[in-house]
Design a protein that fits this description.
Blueprint lengths: L1 H12 L5 H4 E3 L3 E6 L9 E6 L3 H10 L27 E7 L4 H5 L13 H14 L6 E4 L3 H11 L6 E3 L16 H8 L1 H8 L11 H18 L4 E6 L1 H12 L16 E7 L8 E9 L17 E7 L4 H6 L11 H13 L7 E4 L3 H15 L14 E4 L6 H4 L22 H22 L7 E7 L1 H11 L17 E5 L9 E7 L21
Length: 534
């Protein structure tokens, strides 16, 4: 048995996953060598028509697409592609691999398999392992590429269950771009490289549309992941493929490539809840890109530097939150847990030079805003700055939506803010009112960010989860129907970068980040609700 296992391992290691080696084109068909390894590994050829109806439909739609410089997000106004029905609630945790040698060099990796984890990458994977060490996973999927496999092995540790290698989890196929330094790609491919930078959804190379192919592959991966038994699933893969997995799960198209960031060893969580009538499950993005490093540290957003940023802060926990998770309770102050959470958030934001803090008028939001302001203004005493910071504080009525939520005729005990997709429980008229009011708030925040007096400007917004979810929806140019696709916890932060300024599209650096709360945060993989609530 050991001899057979060794032979299978050697056979797999001899197979390159570079597209130039596994793709054989003919005028009619494309042949892909599927090297997916399961518990009973087999190698087989699959045949797919390169002129499928779905591809023709995509090509047709691209003919009327906007110019390369357009950065507007226009989501498809339709439900996500149907996914397999599930019998019980399922949580899927996505992790990007740690820093690789080619990440460090600035070399385009694609689905090539020549880079390995750096020492920093190994350390990042170990940090993620510690983050997830107490959480019980039933199964682990990983890409076949070495940088992903090694990250999965570190995180999986001494768990007995076998890691499943899935070929379709490999990184985006970039064909002739792979192996080039970025300046080499620019020099060699010119306009094509420019298109890859500014209009990736319509980027074509070697007769392929890599991002479109990736989105198709991500949908296939979801079918395999959800059909696997187990309620808690770990998936370790790559930047682009994890973006595609998140986007396809909640129904976003290829125009959202590079909008939902995935940093090295960043953790994203999706909750899948079965429907009573069966069919495709309800899907909620519980968190996005919880990283080993600070989410507000200096860095690029989608490969571009940013000087304009909005940080959405959920106020600390209140007594009613602790007792029932009621999302539309009255105007209450924070409890002791909320005070700790607000202080932890203030400490995290000490690394940022905050320009202004805009909060709801509700007591918990005001208390959280004051805590952030005091730490900011004491930056010189705390050694974070050489001079005191002057932070402008404002309160905005449009950030108060609890009064709207209180008008709901739904049973408040059923609509718990701890439940994934809890905003779906409200009537359409209630959600419309929240959405309209939040749009006014979003436009005000963009004006607040547009100050020409400061080249770099950071605006902190403090409110409850409902308003912050709606603000993210406006940033992504979504409709109110998407509000139930996101989740935020008390004390969490979400970071929106605008690298092209307030008039450009937003890039989501993280959603529902809670690592700064330490022991006071909700664990990543453990469900926050009882089974019967599903």
């Amino acid at each position: 048995r050991n001899k057979k296992r060794t032979l299978k391992k050697k056979r797999f290691e001899m197979i390159s996953v570079s597209p130039s080696l596994v793709l054989h084109k003919s005028p009619t068909f494309s042949f892909f060598l599927n090297t997916s390894i399961r518990q009973n590994p087999t190698c087989r050829f699959t045949v797919r028509s390169s002129f499928s109806s779905s591809l023709q439909q995509v090509e047709k739609s691209s003919s009327s697409s906007s110019s390369l410089e357009s950065r507007d997000l226009v989501p498809e106004l339709q439900s996500p592609a149907p996914l397999p029905a599930i019998k019980a609630a399922k949580r899927v945790v996505l992790v990007r691999h740690g820093q690789s040698t080619w990440n460090e060099e600035g070399r385009i990796q694609g689905s090539s398999n020549f880079s390995v984890l750096t020492k920093k990458g190994e350390a990042q994977a170990e940090t993620s392992r510690q983050m997830l060490i107490d959480d019980a996973f039933d199964v682990c999927f990983t890409s076949p590429l070495e940088r992903s496999k090694r990250t999965a092995e570190i995180i999986w540790g001494n768990r007995e269950e076998e890691i499943i290698t899935e070929f379709d989890l490999r990184e985006i196929d970039l064909y002739s771009f792979q192996g080039l330094l970025k300046h080499e790609g620019k020099a060699k491919f010119g306009a094509a490289f420019r298109q890859w930078q500014v209009d990736a959804a319509n980027f074509n190379i070697d007769g392929h549309y890599p991002v479109r192919e990736l989105w198709d592959r991500a949908r296939t991966c979801w079918t395999k992941i959800l059909e696997q038994e187990g309620r808690s699933v770990l998936v370790v893969a790559h930047n682009a493929v994890n973006q595609a997995l998140v986007a396809t799960a909640i129904g976003l198209g290829t125009e959202y490539f590079r909008v939902l960031l995935q940093s090295n060893c960043g953790v994203s969580v999706l909750d899948f809840t079965p429907r009573i009538e069966s069919g495709s499950p309800f899907i909620c993005l519980n968190r996005l890109n919880q990283t080993p490093n600070s989410p507000v540290a200096a860095g690029s957003s989608g490969g571009r530097k940013t000087s304009k940023r909005i940080i959405l802060v959920c106020h600390g926990s209140t007594q009613t939150d602790a007792e029932a998770g009621n999302p539309f309770s009255g105007d209450q102050t924070m409890n002791m847990l909320g005070v700790i959470q607000s202080q932890k958030t203030a400490e995290l934001l000490l690394d940022m030079n905050v320009s202004s803090i805009v909060s709801s008028r509700k007591k918990a939001s005001v208390e959280t805003a004051i805590a952030i302001s005091r730490v900011q203004e004491a930056a010189d005493c705390l050694g974070a700055d050489c001079v005191p910071r002057n932070v402008e504080m404002k309160q905005m009525e449009n950030l108060d939506v609890k009064n709207i939520l209180q008008q709901s005729k739904k049973d408040s005990s059923v609509i718990s803010s701890l439940r994934p997709g809890w905003l779906n429980g409200f009537e359409d008229i209630i959600l419309s009112a929240v959405w309209d009011q939040s749009e006014e708030a979003w436009q005000y925040l963009l004006k607040e960010l547009a100050s020409e007096a400061e080249s770099e400007r950071v605006v902190v917004v403090v409110g409850d989860p409902a308003i912050n979810i709606a603000l993210m929806g406006h940033c992504l140019n979504l409709k109110k129907d998407w509000m139930g696709s996101f989740h935020l916890d008390a004390g969490s932060i979400s970071v929106v970068d605008l690298p092209d300024g307030p008039a450009g599209r937003g890039v989501i650096r993280c959603i529902n980040y809670t690592a700064h709360l330490g022991r006071w945060s909700i664990p990543i993989t453990r469900s926050t609700v009882e089974d019967e609530m599903f």
